[in-house]
Amino acid sequence: MKRYIVMLIIVLFGTYTLYANAEEGSVEITMPEEAVISFAYAKVADVENGSYVLKEEYKESGVDLNQLGSAKEMEEAIQRLQQFHTKENFVQTGESGNVKIPDLEEGVYLIESLSSDEYQISPMLVAVPAWDVEAGEMSYDISVTPKMEKIPKSVQTGDGSNTNIFSVFFVVSLIIVAILSCQKYFTCGRISE
User: Fold this and answer.
1) Which candidate in 11, 80, 111, 180 could, as Cys together with 41 as Cys, close a disulfide (CB 3.0–4.6 Å)?
2) Strand ranges for 6-113 from DSSP E
3) Which residues form the domain of 57?
């Protein structure tokens, strides 16, 4: 009987430990400028024994998140993962340009903006948890600022005039000038003397 009680305590304690370590986190997206932007996000990898393991639907991408060593490798990995990205989770920034994605399990998330007329926003991979250099510990509440560029607007003259009307007047004027010039040098099809 004592054996069963000890085993039950170990099982209960072990279950409690597993539950206590399974923390949830969040990702706060902060835009450098006030803008209302929509984002899609998806979990692309789990954390297993200290390593990132791609979820089944992303394995065909061939990406190894544990071997990324440069920004270029990260960009290439994102491009390959985007081919399999299912856009089923969405958030939108408020007018302040911030939004928080709550209740995220441990893992790696692909976050990308949906179409924006004003900004070109780079997609990103975010790990939850991530190392907080200032605190010197793992943090489950991550804050990111996406890399973005403002899309230049097309050049406008600002006068709002209809150039078609001016084109017609120009062509008509050329024809009139040509006729008048022709009459000065030619008279009814004969060269004037």
Assistant:
1) 111
2) 25-30, 38-48, 51-54, 89-92, 98-104, 107-113
3) 23-150
